[in-house]
Amino acid sequence: MRDIRKILIANRGEIAIRIIWTCKEMGIKTVAVHSEADREALHVRYADEALCIGGPPSAESYLNIPSIISAAEITNVDAIHPGYGFLAESATFAKVCEDCNIKFIGPNPDVIAMMGDKVEARRAMKAAGVPILPGSPDPIESDQEAKKLALEIGFPVIIKAAAGGGGRGMRIVRTEEELATNLELAQTEALNAFKNGAVYIERYIERPRHIEIQILADEHGNVIHLGERECTIQRRHQKLLEEAPSPVISAELRNKMGAVAVKACQEIGYSSAGTFEFLLDEDGSFYFMEMNTRIQVEHPVTEMVTLADIVRNQIRIATGENIGYTQDEVQIVGHSIECRINAEDPVKFTPSPGKITAFNIPGGPGVRVDTAVYPGYVVPPYYDSMIAKLIVHARTRELAIARMQRALDMLVVEGIKTTIPLHQKIMADEKFQKGEFSTKFMEEFEY
Amino acid sequence: MSETSASAKAKDEIVVDKKSGNGSKKQKQVTDPSLNMDELRDLANLVIEHGFTDFEFENENIRVRLSKTTGAPVTVPASVSSAPAPITAAAAPAPPVETADPDADLYKITSPIVGTFYRSPGPDKNAYVSEGSNVSPETTVCIVEAMKLMNEIQAEVSGEVVKIYVENGQPVEYGQPLFGIKK
Q: pTM of this prediction?
């Protein structure tokens, strides 16, 4: 068992606040590290201690491993919580923490490395019995190989970068004629974007849904799942809003997908929180996409319907504790929706940094706001544009939508542009309300 | 073990109780073992009045450290064990600080990294520079140690060392002022 009395939060923004909330409830001290641009950030003000670790660009600060480790050493922390993004899925960072005897709150470096490599992850998942999209097990070496595989898989196929993610480094090929050129282009793009030109091919599903399963695993082999999240509403592969449970997942399918994820975790020796992302075809078949070996942005919707505190579970697991409850004890109650509010133009999606002159969050039953902004706060241009997550919980999906509409109406953000109007339009959309949508939703959406 | 606390209510009485079972120099006993904001304020005022630069107090429930070094974070950690009413992040009110920077005309050498500041190459060695030392751009002025690596910091300007803002062995953050140089 490990004593964790002080945690350094290697992140910023709303997730840093999120971690501070739970640490405060657990009596754990917090250390905030920040760039020069974040001196007035909320997490800096709430943490017990704060240190500037570098200049505004992420590479100089939030991605600066020596600086963060040095800060951890001089403040004498027991553990580091990496949040999401930045160094959360850096196997190197996890290894450095290990070498410096600082507990990295997450799985071990080998598992992070494996699941971070798309080709390796597919191999491991296939071995663990997880359905994967028909595709190449290894990176494609030649045009001939590509052609042969594509014909086996059946068009349309998609070419993906092995080191890519978040929607980057992907090309759809619908006919044999387009294959060779697209393959070459994809390899070049991958090399430029990710320093790794390896690509693989898999079947492309035309109208999929994006369903992910939240898991928790302790360091003693106990693994449970906390149900699914519906994350299909995306723009250019970036999620706009999420919900739990999914309107199209039956209890039976949930159990089936959950069991697959749990077994995979046990096979690969996973620990801490994690998420399996699946593509769901219209016939109910599901295929592994990727695994995120960290806490996710949209974790609150799962927390609302299961009453779990995922950060708390991560910390407890890091101390060596057992999860402490069984799969049977996990209940999904009601329906939750989360809208990501970004500092962007709601139609053009251009970033809108600047000073927030008014900020008022909605209250009332079943409303939760995860944010790090406040009146007078200047949204810096250096980091991602999400300024708040608006989350609601209600007994049914219909009531949750009504609650979200009410909450969006009463969320006041002035001084910058936000995507609140976009979310209001989505909530009012007939197809959304019926729960009938695929990842094509935003392409077909009228602003 | 009996309840102990520092009582700062009487003007000239700072009672500090050592954490020991026997032979403790108990002079005052109060029923409430924790310190509230008023008591902390009184404590801080007493520190200033008596011209202390550092004051530290600890009992089984709480540890208080007040320091007059400018810029140093003041922390009041509450004990993680069975403290009945731990103080939640109460920082003692800072001693009076001039609103304008009196060293505005000095060039500040700031730390380029996070680490621990040392004034000399080793524990028994002389400090690299002192107040009054003249420096040129290549002069090593201090070491900032990070992850067991000793990083020598150069002055990068010519001039005279007028102020030293940090103490030997003090943790420093990125951009923290270390020396004030009159060019």
A: 0.79
